[in-house]
Amino acid sequence: MAADGTLAVPTAAGAGSGRANTLQRFARRRSTIAFLMTLPLLVVVVGLVGYPAAYGIYLSTLNRRMTGFMEGDWLPTGLGNFEILFDSDTFWMVVWQSCIFAITAVLLKALIGFWLAHMLHHIPTKGQRKWRGMLLVPWVIPPALSTLGWWWMFDPSYSSINWILNIFAVPAVPWLGEPWWARASVIIVNVWYGAPFFMIMYLAALKSVPEQLYEAAAIDGATSWQRLRYVTLPMMANIISITVLFSLIVTFANYDIVRVLTNGGPRDLTHVFASYAFQVGILSSNIPRGAAVSLFMFPILAVCAFFVLRGVTRRNKEQM
Amino acid sequence: MSATAANRGIPGIYHKAGSLRAERRWALWTAYISLIIACIIFLAPPVYMLLTSLKSNAEISDLTLNPWLIRSPTLENYEAILGNPIFIRFFINSAIVTTCVVVLTMVISVLAAFALARMRFWGSQVLATGVFLTYLVPDTLLFIPLYQIVGGLGLLNSVWGLILVYPTLTVPFCTWIMIGYFASIPKELDEAALIDGASWSQMLLKIFVPVAMPGIIAATIFAFTVSWAAFVYPTAFVTTAESMPLTIGVVSQLVRGDTFAWGQIMAGALSAALPPVIIYAFLMDYYIAGLTAGATKG
C-alpha cells in the first residue's frame, strides 16, 4: 500500500502539465459522445411523438375531400372539424361516456387496489408472494385477449355469469345489449384488468412506510382507522395521486376493451374517444376529423400529465 | 389535561389487551376472505377461457349443462388452432415484431439512459423530463397522424411499420427506469473506472450494464409485454391477415361468421397470452420491479 502510494505521487505530478489540454478535449469529447448516445432516443421522441403531434394538429384543420395520400387537394377549413364535432350529438355522447368510463373505472380500481393491498399487507409475509402472484394475473394477460374471454362470458345466450346469477334467482342480465349494462360491462372489465396494478403500486408504497410510525401511533393509542387516516394515507398520498392520475390517462385513452367488447354499440352509446376516433378516422376514412377527435383528449391528458410530473419530481426530491 | 387522558387510558389498556388478539384474528380473517374473493373474481375469466377451450363444440352449445364444469375434456380446439397456418403466421409475426422492438428499445434506452444519468450535458435535464412526458402520451392520441406517416412510407400492412412505431410505446418508459437504475449506481464506481483509464464504452459495458442487470431485465420484460400486447397500432395499420400480429389476428380473424367457434377462439386467445404469462411466472420479481419502478424510482 505504502509503496503504491509513493509511486503514484510523482506520476500524478508529471501528468499535471499536459492535463488542462486533455481535460478540455475530454470534456468536448464527452458531450459529443453523450449527444451520439442520446441521438436514437431523440429520433424516437421527435420523429415518432413530436412530429406526429404537430402533424396531427395540422391534419385536424383539413377537410376530408381527398383521403388519398399526397393527392394535394386537402381543402383547409380552419377549425371546421371542431365546429362539426361540437354540433354533433354523438360527439357529446362520446365525451360524456369517456368521462363516466374513466372516472368510475379509476375510482373503483383505486379503491379495490387499496383494499387488496391493505389486506395483502396484513397477512404473514410468507404467504404474500403466492397471493400477489395470483392477483396480478389479470394485468399480465394482454387485455385484448382477456376481453375476448369476458365477451364470451357476457354472451347473450351462453353467458356463464347469468348462469351463476340464475342460481341466486337473479334474472338474466342483457350485458352487452342495453346501453347502461354495456357501459357497466366495459367498466367491469377495465376494473378487473387495472385493479391489480393499483394493488401492486399501493403494496410497494405500504411496505415503504416505516414501521416505527405505526409503533408510535400504537403507543399514542391510535385506533386502526386513525392509523390509516393519519399515518398510512399521508405517507402514501404522493403515490396514490401519481397512480390515480397515470391510470386516468391510460383509462381515458383506452381502446382495446371497448373495441373487443362492444365496438361502440349499442347505437354508438359506448364509444370512448379512442374508439370513436378510430371509427371516424380509419374505418370511415375521414382522417382529419378522426385526428380532431383524438386531439380532444389532449387537454385532459395534459392536465393529468402535469400533476403526475409534479408528483414524481416531488417524490424524487424527497428521496434524495 | 394529560392526567385525564392518562386516567382514561389506563382502563382502556386492560380492555384492549384482551381484545387485541381477537381483533388481530378478525383482521386476519377479513384479509383472507377478501383475498379469496378477489382471487376467485380475478381468476374466473382466464379459468373459464381454459374450460371453454377444452370443451367440444357440442358441449359448449348445450345450454342444459353447467358452463363452469367440463364433461369430456378434449384437445381438439388446440389441435385445430395450432394446425391453422394463419394462426402460426400471427405467432411468427408477433415474435418478429417483439424481438426487433425489444432489441431496438434496449439499445436505444440503455445508451440514452447512460448518457442522461452520468454525462450531464446541456439540455440533459430537459430531455429526461421530456422522456417522461412522452411516456405519458397514450398510443390512441397519435395513431391517426402515425397512420398517415406510416402510410406515406408505404409500410401499412407490414410488420416493419409496426417495428417502426412500437418504440413509441416502449422506449420512453424503459429509458426512464434505466435512468433510475443507473443513477442509483454509486459515483465512486465510475470514478474508479475512469482513473483506471476506462473509456466510456468500457464503463457502460463492463460496469453499468452488469451492475444494473436487474433493471435491464425489468425493462426488457416491460418492452416484451408491451409490444406483445400492443393493440391500437396493429389494428389501425394492418388489415391483411398475413402480416397481423397475434392480438389483432385472434380478435379479428378467429371471430368471424355467424357461428363463433368459441372453443377455438378461447384456445387461440390463451395460446396467444401464454408467452407473457410464462415470463411473468418465471420472472415475477423483475416484472413487479419494472411495474413499480415508474413511480418509485427515476
From TrEMBL, chain A:
PROSITE patterns membership: ABC_TM1
Record membrane topology: Multi-pass membrane protein
Gene Ontology cellular component annotations, sorted alphabetically: plasma membrane
Segments forming domain ABC transmembrane type-1: 95-308
Transmembrane regions listed in the UniProt entry: 33-58, 91-112, 133-154, 184-205, 235-257, 293-312
UniProt key word Protein biosynthesis: no
One of the protein's GO biological processes: transmembrane transport
Domain of life: Bacteria
InterPro entries: MetI-like, MetI-like_sf
CDD domains: TM_PBP2
Subcellular location: Cell membrane
Keywords tagged on the record: Cell membrane, Membrane, Transmembrane, Transmembrane helix, Transport
Pfam families assigned to the protein according to its UniProt record, in alphabetical order: BPD_transp_1 (PF00528)
Entry similarity comment: Belongs to the binding-protein-dependent transport system permease family.
Protein's UniProt name: ABC transmembrane type-1 domain-containing protein
Organism of provenance: Neoroseomonas lacus
From TrEMBL, chain B:
Pfam families, per the entry: BPD_transp_1
Segments passing through the bilayer: 26-48, 86-114, 126-147, 159-183, 204-231, 261-283
Species this chain originates from: Neoroseomonas lacus
Keywords noted in UniProt: Cell membrane, Membrane, Transmembrane, Transmembrane helix, Transport
Protein name per its UniProtKB record: ABC transporter permease
Domain of life of the source: Bacteria
InterPro entries hit by this protein: BP-dep_ABC_trans_perm, MetI-like, MetI-like_sf
Subcellular location field: Cell membrane
